[in-house]
Each structure stands twice: as C-alpha cells, then as structure tokens.
Design a protein that fits this description.
The structure is a homodimer.
Chain A lengths: L1 E5 L5 H10 L3 E5 L7 H5 L3 E2 L3 H5 L4 E4 L4 H10 L2 H4 L5 E4 L5 H13 L3 E4 L2 E2 L1 H6 L3 E6 L2 H14 E8 L4 H30 L3 H9 L6 H10 L10 H17 L5 H18 L8 H8 L9
Parallel strand pairs in A: 1-2, 1-4, 2-3, 4-5, 5-6, 8-9
Antiparallel strand pairs in A: 7-8
C-alpha cells in the first residue's frame, strides 16, 4: 500500500519504519523536518507537507496527539482534499469520541473512509511492533487495513462499526489508568502517614487482590522524590479531561474518574504538571500532610 | 506448639487442619459445635468454650470476622484470662488499626503478647496453605510464631513493631480492592451505555495498562445478570467503612475510597447488599440508566 504517515514522534518513527519493513511504500511528514531522517534512512520518502504526502496515497495514518491536530492536518492543512477518493484515513490519536465521529462524517462527505483507531503500548510497543489497536469503522475498510495494523501492532480489536467506538474503548482504558494511579497514590499515602514501609507495602499489594498494572509500574516511582518522567501529570489532566467531557456529553456521572481528576488537577496546580504522573501523590501530601502520622519512608 | 484455634469457618477449618498436619497440638472452638468435626477428624481436639480452648495454650489464633468479635472472645468470653502468662494471641481478623492497638494494650496489661496479623487469600488460599499474612508486633514474638504462620501461609510480611500496622496494611489492600471494583464497574458501565461490547472491552483492558487484579476477577461476573456470590456488596460496605473510619481517625481525606464507598452504599441501599460485589455496577445503572447510550451487551 502507498501510505502517507503524518506525525513522526517517538512512537511515529518506529511505526513508520515498521510499515516500510512490511513492504509498504511510506511517505512521511512532520512539522519538524529532522524527524523525517530515520524514515528516509529506512527506505521511506519525505514529503514537504501533509497534503504533499497524501497525494496518491491509499491510506493516511494520522499519528498526531489530539483530535484537534488531526482536524488541522486533514482540513486546514489540505491533506483530506489531496487524498484520492476512496482512500482510508486512520485516526490513531487519542480524542473525544464525538470529535472522531464528526471528523469521520466530514471525510465521508469527501468520499473518504475513516477508521477510528487509537493505539496503546507507548514507545516500547511501537518499537517492537507490539501495539494494541482499538478500531471502529466499516467492516470492509477494516479488512483492507488489517495488514497495515498487523505491521505495527500485536493485537487489533474490532470495537464496532461506528466512528467514536474505538475512541470510547481507549477512553475507558484511560479512565481506569487515571483512577488506578490516583488510587495507588492514595494507598501509598496512607502507608506513609501510618509509618508503614512503602517498599513492604508495594511487595504485599503486588501479590494481593489490590494489585493493578499501574501499582506495579507507577508504585516504585511513587516512592522516589524526583523520579524520571515517563508520562507527566498533565497528560492525565488531558486524558481524564477527555473522559469527563465524554461523560458530560453522554450525561453520565463518573464519580471515581471525577475524584481522580481533582487530584491530578491539584497536583498540576501545585506546580507539578510536568512531573511524572506518579507524583500525583504530592497532591495527597498537600491535602493531608506527608508525615503527620509517622515517619516518611 | 499447643494452639487454641477460635473460629472454624470456611477459612478457619482448613487453616486449623494445616496446623495439625504441621505437628501442632490444636484445640478448636466455634459457636457452631458441628464446625469442630473436620478438625477432630484430622486429629485436633474440640473445646467447649474459647476459655476452655485457651487453657494451657502457647498460642491463641483468633480467626473471627471483626475486631469486636475478637474482643468478645478474649475479654467477655474469658479466653485471655484463661491463657498462661506469656502466651501469644494472633489476631487474624480484619479490624480497625486503632482497635488492634487497644486490644494489644489490654492483653499486654494481662502479661500476654499480641500479633496484629490479618490474612488475605480467601478460602482457596486457606485450603492450599497459601495465605498472605501481614503481621506487626514484637520482633521476638514474631520470630516464635513464624513456624505457625508458615504452616498456613505462603508469604508472611513483617509490617512493623506496633499493633495496628498489620491491620493498616490489610486496610490499604482493601482500599485498593474496593476502589478497583468500583472503577471496573464505572468503566464497564461506560462501555454499556456507549454500545461497546463489554466482552471485547474486557479483553482489551486485560492486555492494557488499565488492567487490575479485580478487573480480571470481577469483570466476567460484572457481565452476568445474576452471578454467583463470591464476596457480597455488603462486605465492601464493611471493609471500606473500616478504611474511611481509619481515615477519619487519622484526619486523612481519602477521595477515591470515599467515592467508591458511595457506590457500594447505593448498591446496598437499592437492595443488592447480598449480591456479588461485582453488582456494584447496578448502582451505576440506577444513577445513569443502563441503556440510554446504546444497547446493553
């Protein structure tokens, strides 16, 4: 397939390279021209604009951060207009389901097909062609695109026929991630104030029913004062924001996601927005005091 | 060791039998006399009261449900007075840390030692001698008791020197369990209203960063209308109640545990207190409507 690949960030580069390796003809574009080098070195082509990349492509992969960026590339940037009729747009950004639906409709009006296909797995998953892809869209479009998904991901989940359903699946994952990180901080903070060793507590929970993927991953960084930043507090302000906006548009109360959001917001407001998201524990310390109930250890 | 074992319920029976198998001399007591049969059949002895069991025991294992029951057995029931000075009381119930501390002090005043040692792992763990034990108390007492713990459990975690710390560790696990069950229900409920297949969603999350032990265990029962009851909604009303009481006594706000508690309380108030705890999802349906956003599936 002739693939236009827009957005060559930390995840985009290995994904585009994996598509080249799988035999696709890949033309990349990124606002930072230097980002195109690794793709060209791997046998891909460099375009001078998103519209330039889109011309004659069978498929346009949008690996931008937000749905608003996707709209800008497609419509203001002219990529949609440059695509041949019948081409497929893969919207792989994390966006509000309603926006995915709106963009899909605009593309349909232009004779283009869209798959709402957010991914998870991060940079490690992108490097290993091990991403998880949650996709919704027309069955025939999904079938045509499956080999492309298989070149970058390990699991492709068919979530439904309507645009927005893929984004809903991703949003449900983000809801759980956000709540679990805040819950881990709440639990660690109880240990901290009660004078129970956090390291022992981490070991206990890791073999108990209270365990979560986030407890395993973020827990050790929660015990550090200045951990390396794997994903920032403000990313969850954004992602839980999408979750709660979606709840609002569906008229759906989400009490746990809402409580978790307040703690990420507070952490950001305290000046820790760029810190590792494990540092949401600082909001608990601000709220309750870190050492009142016992030594901090 | 001569062990008095009080409370031969679904977990107590296999634990007491495992102690006999490990070579200990076990005398059991339970308010339901029939509960003593399996212990006697395995080579243990039956006592006619907790005080009767306690006479001449080196160690009294309290496998009752609450800290209040433990107090009743020890003080009103006369078991503490019947124990020889220097004997050890293992309080294995799930109780408020403050109550564990108070009971420990009363026992110390009588020349007895207490280990605050709640367990987790359920009936399956008890059967397989695979329980996790979170214990706090004097180092020498813990050292003397370790072989007893090893006869019933796989992991014994030393949580600290003070009574209450073992119960705090257990309470932290219950905090995470309660929040994770409610979060799973919140997430499943979003899928339900958005018309995304819950079975597909369960599969996606199981391989994603949003995964938790509870998602894996309770998720499938959340998809059933009348699942078998493994642990009831009202058990989490009790356990999150202990968590929030502890937060209150420490003057510590616990926003996620509090939000989760409201959902378990609502589920119980709706008449589902005896239902499987996965059915906290019914409180979400009552709150937001189950099918407003799409088909229930």
């Amino acid at each position: 397939m002739r693939i236009a690949f827009i957005g060559l960030g930390a995840m985009g580069v290995p994904m585009a390279v994996n598509l080249v390796k799988a035999g696709h003809e890949v033309t990349g574009f990124d606002v930072r021209a230097a980002a195109l080098q690794p793709l060209v070195a791997a046998g891909g082509k460099a375009a001078t604009s998103a519209a330039d990349a889109a011309r004659n492509a069978d498929l346009l992969w949008l690996m931008v951060v937000t749905g608003e960026q996707a709209e800008a590339v497609l419509f203001e940037g002219g990529a949609a207009a440059a695509l041949p009729r019948g081409a497929i747009v893969v919207a792989a950004c994390t966006q509000a389901p309603a926006l995915a639906k709106k963009t899909s409709q605009r593309l349909a009006d232009m004779g283009l097909e869209m798959l709402d296909a957010p991914v998870s797995g991060g940079v490690a998953g992108a490097n290993a062609a091990g991403l998880t892809i949650m996709v919704s869209g027309a069955e025939a479009t999904l079938a045509r695109t499956r080999p492309v998904f298989e070149a970058v991901g390990k699991r492709t989940f068919d979530v439904g026929r309507e645009a927005g359903m893929g984004s809903t699946a991703k949003m449900i994952n983000q809801l759980l991630c956000g709540v679990h990180i805040a819950a881990a901080a709440e639990a660690m903070h109880v240990a901290e104030r009660a004078g129970v060793s956090k390291a022992t507590m981490h070991e206990i929970i890791s073999v108990s029913a209270g365990n979560s993927w986030m407890w395993g991953d973020r827990g050790p960084r929660m015990m550090m004062d200045e951990p390396p930043v794997t994903s920032a507090v403000d990313i969850f302000v954004k992602d839980l924001g999408i979750v709660l906006d979606q709840g609002k548009s569906m008229r759906q109360g989400l009490p746990l996601a809402s409580a978790a959001m307040q703690m990420f917001l507070a952490a950001s407001g305290l000046g820790h927005g760029a810190a590792d998201d494990s540092q949401v524990i600082r909001a608990y310390r601000a709220l309750n005091g870190s050492q009142a109930g016992g030594p901090k250890k």
